[in-house]
Design goal:
binds nicotinamide-adenine-dinucleotide; 39% helix
Length: 325
């Protein structure tokens, strides 16, 4: 199968592309390689993909449909995994337009590309657990109301779900949205807590612990996420009268205390962190926990990696990547 993967130089996108190539699919990768975080990391992920047969790369900004649509004319794919986005909750307070461009305009660009692709079968796209905002009923279920986002990032992800539903309704285009819950692992993101903590602890610097550590997250290991994304891609929603649009949570099956995550990280690093307790950050949420009932029922998704296994694997990769012993 020929699959478009957007955000292919990103953390999740690069892993998904490798998994697709592993099983013999061909991958058309798109990314703009922007400098939201260290571009060398994106280039390093991309270099590993470009060494593989069946992979083609197009450097394009999806926020610019006038450039993207002609550049991809003649490129064939039947399914798509759209992961390109401006990610991160905190940055959306300082650079709102980056979110509008990448997550709203970029999303419509992908919807239009897919809609006009002959024989197109299924679009899987990234949403986020952030859409649950300040909801306090745990675990978060896809049937819960999500119309009170607490960050612009979350608002754009909810808008992506709405726009995707519209395309499923108007054009009978099968779409599946995945609400990712705090993904971590090798080749991860330098703006996320796990990386920032690791970097600081190894440098002997203090770490900033928000909401005085009273936070819980469904930390989900990348290999579990990749299995879920591929399962979703392989199961387009049926067109049975209702629009062929689905949204699923994709997380781990337990929500961890932030201080427990730090303790596991300290164990893996063999060092103790100096913790600076700080108040809650604007736009952030205190806890996330995923109700996985529907993704388990429909796609057989079952995460298998506890943080006690996943964090040491992240640390081992982090040290190797940075040439540390
Ligand atoms: N990692 C997580 O914990 C998490 C949680 C919830 C949702 N998500 C979502 O999952 C998706 C993938 O996240 P990730 O962690 O791999 O992030 P990432 O930042 O590593 O990857 C995103 C990639 O998209 C590219 N990109 C951004 N804007 C673009 C544009 N306009 N045109 C083309 N490429 C563009 C970036 O260069 C980057 O390589 C994103 O949509 C993100 O919002 C991730």
């Amino acid at each position: 199968m020929q699959v478009l993967v957007t955000g292919v130089a990103g953390f999740i996108g690069s892993h998904v592309a490798h998994a697709l190539l592993d099983r013999g699919d061909t991958v058309v990768g798109v990314d703009d390689l922007n400098d939201y975080y260290d571009v060398r990391l994106k280039q390093a992920r991309l270099a590993r993909l470009e060494a593989r047969p069946g992979f083609a790369f197009h450097r394009l900004d999806l926020g610019d449909p006038d450039a993207v649509i002609p550049a991809l004319r003649g490129v064939q794919f039947t399914r798509a995994v759209h992961l390109a986005a401006q990610a991160g909750v905190r940055y959306s307070l300082t650079n709102p337009f980056a979110y509008v461009r990448a997550n709203l305009m970029g999303h419509v660009t992908v919807l239009e590309l897919c809609r006009h692709m002959p024989g197109f079968e299924h679009l899987v796209y990234a949403s986020s657990s952030s859409v649950y905002g300040g909801n306090t009923h745990m675990p978060f279920a896809v049937t819960d109301r999500v119309d009170q986002p607490v960050s612009l990032y979350a608002a754009t992800k909810k808008a992506d779900e709405l726009m995707s539903h519209t395309y499923a309704h108007l054009y009978r285009m099968p779409v599946t949205g995945l609400r990712f819950f705090t993904v971590y692992g090798p080749w991860g993101r330098p703006d996320m807590a796990m990386w920032l903590f690791t970097e600081a602890i190894l440098a002997g610097q203090p770490i900033r612990v928000f909401n005085h550590g009273k936070m819980r997250r469904d930390f989900t290991f990348i290999d579990d996420i990749v299995r879920g994304v591929i399962a979703a891609l392989d199961h387009p929603p049926a067109d049975d009268g209702a629009p062929p649009a689905r949204v699923y949570n994709i997380g781990n099956n337990r929500s961890e205390e932030l201080l427990h995550m730090i303790a596991v990280l300290e164990g893996a690093l063999g060092r103790t962190a100096e913790k600076i307790m700080e108040p809650m950050q604007p736009g952030d949420v205190e806890a996330t926990a995923a109700d996985l009932t529907s993704i388990h029922r429909d796609l057989g998704y079952q995460p298998t990696t506890p943080i006690e296994v996943g964090i040491p694997r992240f640390v081992a990769w982090y040290k190797a990547y940075h040439g540390l012993t």
